[in-house]
Amino acid sequence: MAGALATAGVALGLGLAPGSSAIADSPVPSDTELLAKTLKVERLMVLAYERVLASGALSAGVQRALTPFLAQERAHVSAVAAPLSRLGAPAPTGPLSLKAASAALDQHHVSGNLTGLRTEDDCLKLLVDLESVAEGAAYTPIRHLRRPDLVTLCAQIMACEAQHWTVLSGLRNPGQYVMSIPWPFVFGSS
Fold first, then answer.
1. Taking the domains of the chain in order of start, what are their residue ranges?
2. Cα(168)–Cα(26) distance, rounded to whole angstroms?
3. CA 138/CA 130 separation, integer angstroms
């Protein structure tokens, strides 16, 4: 009964009639589908950090600050790939091709690219934008995942990505502390 009332409340809040097909026709993605999307974004993050760190555009201090982030992104790939494998799904952990990465950037509406990283600001802007995507990719599955351990994993990854975003924003805007304060809301991505 409470579930039906909650569904009706959500439907009315969205301007839908109770029992509307807009709610009924939206199948909840499987844990496998949700994690596969998160893994794809995490693989994109690894490639982006590799390209940025190899660009030669970073000052020594920024290079030192970002180097640990690559290891953390690689750990995210492994952490998401492991349960995907246990669920019997393909869990590629190798690098994305530049073509696949470019398509992913377009899909997530991220301007910039992984081959035109000429300045430190180009690099930092790209990573800030991608960290926002990664936060959303970790946030989106949380409400639909069925296993609590997977919810915890995504929450931990989301928190790490938010920390990266904060550091990157601070590096991009030195002395402008308000620019490195995270947004109070995270939005999911598909």
1. 29-180
2. 36
3. 12
89's CB contacts (< 8 A; 6+ apart) are 32, 35, 36
CA trace torsion 144, 146, 152, 154 (10° rounding): -40
Residue with the larger pLDDT of the pair 12 and 164: 164
Q: Does domain 29-180 match CATH 1.20.1260.10? A: yes
Residue type, 31: D
Tell me how long the chain is. 190
pLDDT of residue 26: 74
Q: Which residue has the tokens 């947004």?
A: 183
When pLDDT is cut at 50, 70 and 90, the band that residue 27 belongs to is confident
Question: 168 with 65: CB under 8 angstroms?
Answer: no
Tell me the two tokens of residue 131: 């960290």
